[in-house]
């Protein structure tokens, strides 16, 4: 006990000692003289009211309509706000509106994104990357940096300078209603490492990362969108768990940070949310932790803050630099002006914050802002390289929680009867389709099959793969019975917290694989992993109740061909697609009625397409990728099966049968395998 008290005292002393502030890297990269010249030149053109407006970022509709354009025009030209946050919509609409708004603005606007898992969190026609809980399972942290860079490039293509990510909350409460899978996990080191790697990737591409929700929203049981959550922990606990990732982020020289709406009595007993608390925002974040980057509030329209009156004024007084989406922005701007006139807040404080915002606008490239190029926008945002990265993220996150009797990867496919049973989905899922690439004619079942009939049918199968797409009560009995067959392999397309509700039902599997999400890519790579098409490397980012600890996860190795994009192995889809026209020409000239082309490289099938038909006349049977072909049959084939002595051609080193091959004696002539004094290559020519 005494030892614990001494350690706590030492920690407190260390926290209270002055620390050297780290200048954010975004500012370090900028030419200081040019930055100050631009900042001063813009600042000197602004009226006192316009300087206040530079501290406002307002959420706006992402819909290119005349009514919305009129609303945007008023915000930009009349109120002269400093930045925008677009809500959900399409990339084309947002890019068009961004160009429109920037053309109206005398001072370039800060365009922000609430994109914790990339643009797709708000933009429907863009790549959808995994949520953070899934990324928390990945053991290759450099992949998180690469992912951050990819999101940074996508943001820049969209004219976005700021992303409200990463989430730095340590989700220590599995019943947290608002953070949950938005967190990288419950371990301090894992959360810090993953979030900082991602943030560094963003900022390497010139996009500001904004970590949230300071001082930590991970151990709450309430949602700050609906109320003001209480965080009841002591200051010591907060420093060691909740605040520690933010300190590491600050010490890493990253640029943006968002303060949450949280009631934390140990840091401020006034009852105000952290976002409106000077003790938390100015004293702790600014003075103690020495954060010199931009400080954003969480959205002030949220119930956790909106009941406190003039929230924008309170937020500025608390130490924030930018107020995000307050109710009635025009009235909030007026309240700050009146507070200055009444001496409650100084104009010099506003001027100081305005210059700080302008410096970051310069560092983020807004002094040389160009319009978003609309030509090819959707194609650029959905380029194959982003899907190739997305595939790697999905594959690397897969987590094998148990593997009794080395069940995975599944072997002896030619001798095993395999059934695939989907729960909460149907037999047309990507998972079911991908298993057919490996398992010869698998039995495929879904919820439409009566459970008693299904269990009786499954007695005739050696392996039963149970794909779990839902944790709803209506499926639990079915999942439990399937997993008790003694030959079940369970694959969960659920979050770890959803798995907690199925702990009893999942206790009896031969193997248990967690894929984290029910997306097409998660399904595809889970199916590949079962058969050894990809290795399994992930580690559980949170503890599961009564069964598995954080960090649990077994490894398997790749032992079969996998399936991916050409870009994943250094090839170009556009170049490879040219073969389509060549094959089409061959079919048109009746060189062949149809064919299948399979291209594999580095252990991955990157092209598997079928063309045409099996005959010229009837077109009764279109070639399919799962068709089987006899290379040669009859007595020659039987003789070949019994013969395993081969020699290589002395000239070309290609394998051929030796002269004594019984296939020749059986009459199989006219083949390059047949003995011939010439080189095999010459024969082929």
Question: Could you characterize what this model shows?
Answer:
- This protein is an alpha/beta fold.
- Helices cover 38% and strands 13% of the residues.
- It contains 28 helices and 19 strands.
- It has an 8-stranded parallel beta sheet.
- α3 crosses α16, α5 (66-79) packs parallel to α6 and α8 runs parallel beside α9 (188-204).
- The radius of gyration is 31 Å and the shape is globular.
Question: How are the elements arranged and paired?
Answer:
Layout (H helix, E strand, L loop, with lengths): L1 H15 L8 H5 L2 H12 L4 H6 L2 E5 L5 H14 L3 E4 L4 H14 L5 E4 L18 H4 L5 H17 L4 E2 L24 H17 L3 E7 L20 H6 L3 H8 L4 E4 L18 H11 L5 E4 L5 H4 L4 H8 L4 E2 L4 H13 L5 H17 L13 H5 L2 H14 L1 E5 L14 E6 L6 H6 L7 E3 L5 H8 L4 E6 L4 H11 L4 E5 L3 H5 L10 E4 L5 H11 L31 E2 L9 H4 L2 H10 L5 E8 L2 E9 L22 H7 L4 E3 L6 E3 L4 H4 L14 H5 L1
Parallel strand pairs: 1-2, 1-8, 2-3, 3-4, 4-5, 5-6, 6-7, 10-11, 10-12, 12-13, 13-14, 15-17
Antiparallel strand pairs: 9-14, 16-17, 18-19
Helix pairs in contact: 3-16, 5-6, 8-9, 8-18, 9-11, 18-23
Structural class: alpha/beta
**What is the percentage of strand-forming residues?**
5-15%
- Overall spatial form: globular
Major sheet summary line: 8 strands, parallel
Query: What level of helicity do the residues show?
Result: 25-40%
Low-confidence stretches: 1-18, 639-685
**On the 0-100 scale, what is the average pLDDT?**
90
What's the gyration radius in Å?
31 Å
How many helices? The count is 28
Q: Could you give the distance between the termini?
A: 86 Å
Number of strands: 19
Order of adjacent strands in the largest pleated sheet: 7-6-5-4-3-2-1-8
């Amino acid at each position: 006990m005494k030892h614990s008290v001494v350690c706590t005292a030492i920690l407190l002393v260390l926290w209270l000692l002055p620390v050297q502030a780290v200048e954010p890297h975004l500012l370090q990269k900028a030419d200081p003289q040019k930055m100050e010249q631009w900042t001063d030149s813009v600042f000197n053109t602004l009226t006192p009211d316009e300087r206040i407006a530079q501290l406002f970022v307002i959420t706006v509709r992402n819909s290119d309509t005349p009514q919305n354009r009129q609303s945007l025009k008023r915000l930009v030209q009349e109120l002269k706000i400093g930045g925008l946050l677009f809500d959900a919509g399409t990339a084309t609409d947002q890019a068009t509106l961004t160009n429109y708004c920037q053309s109206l603005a005398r001072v370039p606007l800060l365009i922000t994104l609430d994109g914790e898992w990339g643009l797709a969190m708000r933009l429907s026609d863009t790549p959808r990357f995994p949520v953070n809980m899934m990324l928390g399972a990945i053991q290759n942290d450099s992949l998180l940096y690469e992912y951050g860079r990819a999101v940074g490039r996508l943001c820049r293509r969209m004219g976005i300078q700021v992303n409200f990510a990463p989430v730095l909350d340590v989700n220590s409460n599995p019943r947290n209603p608002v953070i949950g899978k938005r967190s990288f996990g419950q371990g301090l080191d894992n959360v810090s490492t993953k979030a900082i790697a991602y943030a560094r990737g963003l900022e390497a591409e010139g996009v500001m990362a904004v970590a949230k929700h300071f001082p930590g929203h991970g151990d709450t049981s309430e949602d700050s969108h609906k109320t003001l959550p209480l965080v009841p922990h002591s200051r010591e606990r907060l420093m060691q768990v909740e605040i520690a990732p933010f300190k590491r982020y600050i010490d890493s020289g990253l640029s943006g940070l968002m303060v949450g709406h949280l009631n934390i009595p140990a840091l401020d007993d006034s009852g105000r949310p952290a976002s409106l608390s000077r003790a938390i925002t100015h004293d702790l974040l600014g003075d103690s932790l020495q954060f010199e980057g931009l400080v954003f509030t969480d959205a002030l329209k949220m119930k956790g803050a909106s009941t406190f009156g003039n929230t924008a004024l309170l937020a500025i007084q608390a130490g924030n630099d930018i107020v995000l989406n307050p109710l009635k922005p025009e009235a909030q701007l007026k309240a700050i002006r009146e507070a200055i006139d009444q001496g409650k807040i100084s104009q010099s404080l506003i001027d100081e914050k305005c210059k700080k915002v302008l410096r970051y606008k310069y560092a983020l490239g807004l002094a040389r802002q160009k319009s978003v190029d609309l030509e090819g926008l959707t194609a650029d945002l959905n380029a194959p390289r982003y899907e190739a990265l997305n595939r790697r993220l999905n594959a690397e996150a897969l987590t094998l929680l148990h593997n009794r009797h080395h069940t995975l990867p599944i072997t002896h496919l030619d001798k095993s009867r395999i059934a695939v049973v989907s729960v909460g989905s149907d037999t047309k899922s990507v998972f079911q389709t991908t298993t057919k690439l490996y398992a010869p004619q698998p039995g495929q079942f879904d919820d439409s099959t009566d459970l008693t009939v299904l269990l009786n049918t499954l007695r005739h199968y050696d392996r039963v793969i149970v794909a779990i797409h839902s944790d709803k009560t209506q499926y639990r009995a079915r999942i439990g019975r399937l997993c008790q067959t003694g030959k079940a392999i369970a694959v969960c397309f659920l979050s770890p917290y959803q798995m907690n509700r199925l702990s009893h039902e999942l206790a009896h599997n031969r193997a248990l694989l967690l894929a984290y999400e029910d997306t097409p890519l998660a399904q595809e790579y889970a199916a590949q992993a079962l058969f050894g098409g990809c290795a399994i490397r992930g580690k559980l980012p949170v503890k599961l109740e009564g069964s598995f600890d954080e960090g649990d996860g077994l490894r398997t190795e790749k032992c079969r061909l996998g399936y991916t994009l050409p870009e994943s192995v250094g090839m170009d889809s556009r170049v490879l697609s040219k073969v389509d026209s060549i094959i089409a020409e061959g079919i048109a000239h009746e060189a062949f009625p149809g064919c299948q082309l399979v291209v594999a490289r580095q252990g991955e099938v990157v092209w598997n397409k079928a063309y045409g038909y099996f005959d010229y006349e009837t077109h009764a049977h279109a070639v399919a990728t799962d068709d089987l072909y006899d290379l040669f049959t009859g007595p020659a084939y039987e003789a070949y099966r019994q013969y395993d002595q081969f020699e290589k051609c002395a000239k070309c080193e290609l394998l051929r049968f030796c002269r004594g091959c019984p296939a020749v004696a059986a009459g199989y002539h006219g083949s390059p395998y047949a003995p011939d004094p010439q080189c095999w290559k010459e024969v082929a020519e």
